[in-house]
Specification:
single chain; 191 residues; mainly alpha; globular; binds fe (ii) ion
């Protein structure tokens, strides 16, 4: 349902929870980047009226999530800081084709996959995080990220036939699983 080619390997949750403060800082960066990506698309494609309102709404939701993670960090005595990012999203985006509308289609599908992976991993944290506050926090975010996955797929479906979207999504999902498997094992949402 989430279009992922491979599930998160067993052991990821225990590994990242061992460095929970760093994982939470990375999570804050992910929410900020998700908002930035949606805003960036609104600026880059003003001619595509169909994506402006959905992506503006999505960006606002991601900024709310960003603020929620900042508050969580604050409540735990941690603070937001610069972190070496996982190479995951950059490597995934390098697969986008350079000509339009393929470039936009690929970008939307990569965003859909990133949302799907976040959603899957929030689900793991919602059951395995060490305290009830965190478990409830991740359970609450799950539904939004699943919806964002759907928003990006809906937008992609406006640009190409169902067969083309499905074929390209399959290729990019296989790449996403490969990139993730090759990513250094840092305490990151996408590593
Ligand atoms: Fe989010
Ligand atoms: Fe999201």
């Amino acid at each position: 349902m989430l279009s992922l080619a491979a599930p998160t390997p067993p052991g990821w949750t225990r590994r990242v929870l061992a460095e929970l403060p760093e994982l939470l800082v990375d999570h804050a960066h992910c929410e900020k980047k998700a908002a930035g990506m949606a805003v960036n698309l609104v600026f880059r494609y003003p001619q595509h009226a169909f994506l402006l309102a959905p992506l503006s709404r999505l960006a606002r939701e991601e900024l709310v999530h960003f603020e929620q993670v900042l508050a969580l960090l604050d409540a735990r005595g941690d603070s937001f800081r610069i972190l070496r990012p996982s190479p995951y999203a950059g490597r995934l985006r390098r697969a986008t084709r350079s000509h339009e509308p393929a470039r936009l289609l690929d970008t939307l599908l990569c965003c859909a996959l990133i949302e799907a992976r976040s959603c899957e991993r929030f689900g793991l944290l919602a059951t395995e995080a060490p305290d009830a506050e965190l478990r409830a926090f991740y359970a609450g975010l799950l539904a939004s990220e699943a919806r964002h996955h759907g928003v990006y797929l809906d937008l992609a479906s406006r640009l190409a036939s169902r067969a083309e979207v499905s074929a390209r999504l399959g290729d990019l999902a296989a790449l996403e699983a490969r990139v993730l498997a090759e990513t250094p094992p840092l305490a990151r949402m996408h590593a």
